[in-house]
Amino acid sequence: MALFILISFHLVLRVQPQNVPQPELSVSPSALTVGGSVQLDCKTPSAGVSQCYFYPEGDETNTKHSPSCQLSLTDSELTRWTGHSYRSPQSINLICYYTVNEFRNQAESPRSLPATVTVQALDAPQLSVSTSGRSSVQLNCTPPYAGLSLCYFYPEGHERDLKFPSCQLSLTGAELTTWAGRSYSSVQPVNVICFYSVKMSDRQRLSPHSLPAPVRTLGKKPTMTVRHDDRRHVFSLVCEVSLSLGADVGCDFYIGDEKIKWMMSQTTRSGSLACNFTAHKDFLFSRMKSAKSREVSCDYSLNSDQTVHSPLSDSHSLTQLPPLPTPKTTTQLIKSPKSTTAATYTVLTSPSETIRASLTTRSKRHDHVQRASTRKLLIILLSTTSVSILAGVMSVYLCRFIRKQSTKRLFKVDSRGDNQGDTITMTSAPHFSYSVIDSVPTPTQPSGPCGDTHNHSEDTQGIVHHFYCSIAETATDS
Questions:
Q1: In degrees, to the nearest 5, what angle opens at C-alpha 24 toward C-alphas 20 and 29?
Q2: What is the Cα–Cα distance from 113 to 90, expressed in whole angstroms?
Q3: Residues 274-287, buried b or exposed e (16+ Cβ, 10 A)?
Q4: pLDDT category, 237, cuts 50, 70, 90?
Q5: Helix residue ranges per DSSP H, 279-413
Q6: Is residue 41 a contact partner of residue 58, using CB atoms and an 8 Å limit?
Q7: Which of 83, 134, 239, 322 has its CA 20 to 30 A from that of 42?
Q8: Poorest-confidence range of 77-81, 227-231, 295-299, 326-330?
Q9: Tally of CB atoms within 10 A around 262
Q10: Rounded distance, CA 213 to CA 163, Å?
């Protein structure tokens, strides 16, 4: 009897898992890209689930578990877990199941149907070429994903000659030809390829390679010669390209940094190419004034691609032309705003040129000296003004006093004489004239105050009396 019960209980335990429903696995999104993540959801219709398990199809021992039956994985975690890479598009099948607790035992559910996650391959970068300066190029390797900065460049056919790690690369003509293993006489483009790497699963994953981008530089500079015809007053500028090229070449002529002419090249007897430019001295002198330089030079470029120029030739100075006029300069000192460390002055030498000179002094000492000088100047001005005012007032009063005294003394005459019977008092205005009368008539001989005089008595002979008669020049108010 006991044996029968034991066998029946064992059969119940073996049949019980068949009654656990099968889960359903869903993935979102179904396509995983670089830098993305995927969400796994094992849907269980039964209650009392204790744990959910996930594994790649065919690798049941490589499981990940989650008590919530949901699992989130980044692109790196998924590729590391499944062992797949981004070198090519791949599909990964994932399966899940769960366990339940019954009769103090864990029962496993049936396995879900596979859910597919497509791991997209890394996209190839885009390689672009642009000119950088006169004789260099800029290579830009642009990954399709943001945040990537590790790129590699190599010439086509030389994959081991890598330049890295930046996604930008600047090359001169000499560097490009040396890198590609070509000579300076070759103007054929060099095809450059790039790719990038992504760190995934603690490893660097390499992207597909870009399409080849043709890169052309002209590494060798031309030779510049100048001939002067003094009789015709013309200059002949020759820009010689020491290359045997199978393409047409044009030359640009410069005065300073200013371009003055473009000329087509011609083949010389030696097989090289040369551009000839003949110009009158007046034309060159006018361009010299605008460029403010007398140095001439040249470079060349392919007619098929004029965006790439060779280095400039050595410059030549047009010493046969008169010197450039120098503008009149005026010097003016302008004090700039105060500084805590130095006093700065600006020297203006011409309307278009400013020379800034820094005169380093202690600003505090400078301010103190300036304030002291100002106080001294004010004291001197006040003292001079006070003295001048006081002197003026004193002069006015002194003049009035002297004038008053002179008027009393000269214009109020009180004549009293023993031989004169009458007292004559005359007062005149400030402006007067007077005459001297040699004799005064006796009391017996009347006369006007200013009349003519005659001797009438012998007693008066020898005695001279002076009589003053004043006649006012202007009428006085009565």
A1: 160
A2: 19
A3: bbebebebeebeeb
A4: very high
A5: 281-291, 363-411
A6: no
A7: 83
A8: 326-330
A9: 13
A10: 15
pLDDT recorded at residue 413: 45
Residue, of 437 and 302, whose pLDDT is higher: 302
Query: How remote is the C-alpha of 307 from its chain's centroid?
Result: 27
From 302-316, 326-340, 343-357, the region with the lowest mean pLDDT: 343-357
Query: Where is average pLDDT lowest: 65-79, 96-110, 155-169, 360-374?
Result: 360-374
Tell me the C-alpha to C-alpha distance, in Å, between residue 252 and each of 264, 306, 398. Answer: 9, 11, 92
Strands 234-241 and 273-280: antiparallel
Q: What letters, b where the CB count within 10 A reaches 16 and e where it falls short, cover 170-181?
A: ebbbebbbebbe
Q: How far apart are the first and last CA of the chain?
A: 177
Q: Distance between alpha carbon 188 and the CA centroid of its chain, in Å?
A: 39
Contacts of 152 (CB under 8 A, 6+ apart): 141, 162, 163, 164, 165, 194, 195, 196, 197
- DSSP result, 143-163: -SSTT---EEEEETT-TTS-B
Given this model, what pLDDT does residue 330 score? 52
**CA–CA separation, 210 vs 206, rounded Å?**
12
Q: Among candidates 347, 339, 334, 332, which has minimal Cα distance to 367?
A: 339
Q: Please give the residue that has the higher pLDDT: either 332 or 290.
A: 290
Please provide the average confidence, as pLDDT, over all residues in the chain: 74
Separation of alpha carbons 234 and 418, rounded Å: 119
Token duo for residue 96: 């899940």
Return the higher-pLDDT residue of 67 and 272: 67
Strands (DSSP E) along 8-104, which ranges? 24-28, 31-32, 37-43, 49-56, 64-66, 70-74, 90-102
pLDDT at 315 > cutoff 50: yes
Write the CB contacts of 444 (distance below 8 Å, at least 6 apart in sequence): 456
Q: Which two tokens stand for residue 237?
A: 């500028």
- Percent helix, strand and coil across the chain, each rounded to 5? 20, 40, 40
Q: What's the CA dihedral at 302, 307, 313, 318 to 10 degrees? A: 110
Q: What is the per-residue pLDDT across 354-368, written as a single tens digit (0 to 9) for each?
A: 434 343 444 445 555
Distance (Å, whole) CA 92 – CA 364: 79
